[in-house]
Amino acid sequence: MCLYMAHGGTNFGLWAGANREDGELLSTVTSYDSDAPIAEDGTLTEKFFAMREALGASAPIVSQQPRTLAARTLPTTPGRNLDDALDLLAGPAVDVATTVAFEDLSLDAGMLLLDADVLLPGDDVSLAFPQVADRATVRLDGRRLGAVQESGSIDLGPRGVGGTGRLHVIVENLGRVNYGWSLGERKGLLAPALLGRRAVQRWRARPLDLADAGPDDLTRLRERSPGESGSPAVELDGAGVAFATPTLTEVADTHLALPGFERGLVWVNDFLLGRYWEVGPQETLYVPAPLLHRGENVITVLELERRGSAVELRARPSLGPEESYIEEF
């Protein structure tokens, strides 16, 4: 059975799924273009015209190629730091013992925020996550320790005898599996995290449904965190919110790039465009003209690792090298 995609598409918001290949979870990128004859923005590609020639099509083409905005670079302004931003968006806390799934909190996509007070051994110790779905970013007393995807451990080193610490974990859903034996997999902290040989217990879990963030939430994200001051250039280092406010005299399609940013989510005006990640292959997110308006627009970025100092509007997409895509059943 052979399927051929004629027209590309976009997984806006948190709709991008995932596949498994040899057991490894591979997240689907936001642009579902797949080198189709008609690109996600409606562009008729060279492949489209080659197919017309091969099929002997002679009827006139009535559709028009899409217009795009002129390329430009937009400096960003810092908003809230990551802790403050996630606290603002998260729901009420629920006490759990050692594990918790998204489904336990009626959460389909987005993130879980977990924190627990832990007793730290005096010798070198590691924090292990035998089963986390899908990615855990770990901090101890506000300092980032690292990240684990699906399973792994983080070396904490010596931490003093009998000391305590506040452990924070952000668990992200990187996409529901589209088909195959992994359909219906649960998301979250699915096995106890182990501090040395002891299970971390008494977590406080908060659901974070990013798709529910409304205009008032986004406005508050762009505010400065209480007590913060200083040079915006310095404060852009690290995780948190950054935003840009392009003023447009006309509207047309564009492609958003985030050079210098690492991974997170982005809204255009009040619309959740989707996830981005510097690992690629996708470098730009498609922004259709109806998401924009004449006058001032707002691009809001929630960066989980490292904020950049500018975003770019590009006339053409950058989706990585062309690949042959074969669906097997």
Q: What descriptors fit this protein?
A:
Jelly Rolls, five-stranded antiparallel sheet, BetaGal1-like_ABD1, mainly beta, 9% helix, globular, 329 residues, Glycoside_Hdrlase_35, six-stranded antiparallel sheet
The CATH superfamily of the largest domain is Galactose-binding domain-like
Give the class-level CATH name of the largest domain: Mainly Beta
* Helical coverage, percent range: under 10%
CATH architectural category of the largest domain: Sandwich
Tell me, what's the shape? Answer: globular
Pfam families: BetaGal_ABD_1, BetaGal_gal-bd, Glyco_hydro_35
Domain Beta-galactosidase 1-like first all-beta: 101-209
Family: Belongs to the glycosyl hydrolase 35 family.
Domain Beta-galactosidase galactose-binding: 244-297
How would you portray this structure in words?
The chain is mainly beta and 329 residues long. It folds into three domains: 9-55, no CATH class; 72-83 and 211-314, Jelly Rolls (Sandwich), CATH 2.60.120; 98-201, Galactose-binding domain-like (Jelly Rolls), CATH 2.60.120. Helix content is 9%, strand content 38%. It has helices spanning 46-55, 82-89, 215-221, 232-235; strands spanning 9-10, 18-21, 24-27, 31-32, 72-75, 77-81, 94-96, 100-101, 111-120, 125-129, 132-133, 135-140, 143-149, 152-157, 163-172, 188-189, 194-195, 198-199, 203-208, 240-244, 247-248, 254-257, 263-268, 271-277, 284-287, 295-296, 299-303, 310-314. The strands form eight sheets. A six-stranded antiparallel sheet has the order 7-19-9-15-12-13, with no helix packed on it. Strands 6-20-27-23-24 form a five-stranded antiparallel sheet. A four-stranded antiparallel sheet has the order 5-28-22-25, with no helix packed on it.
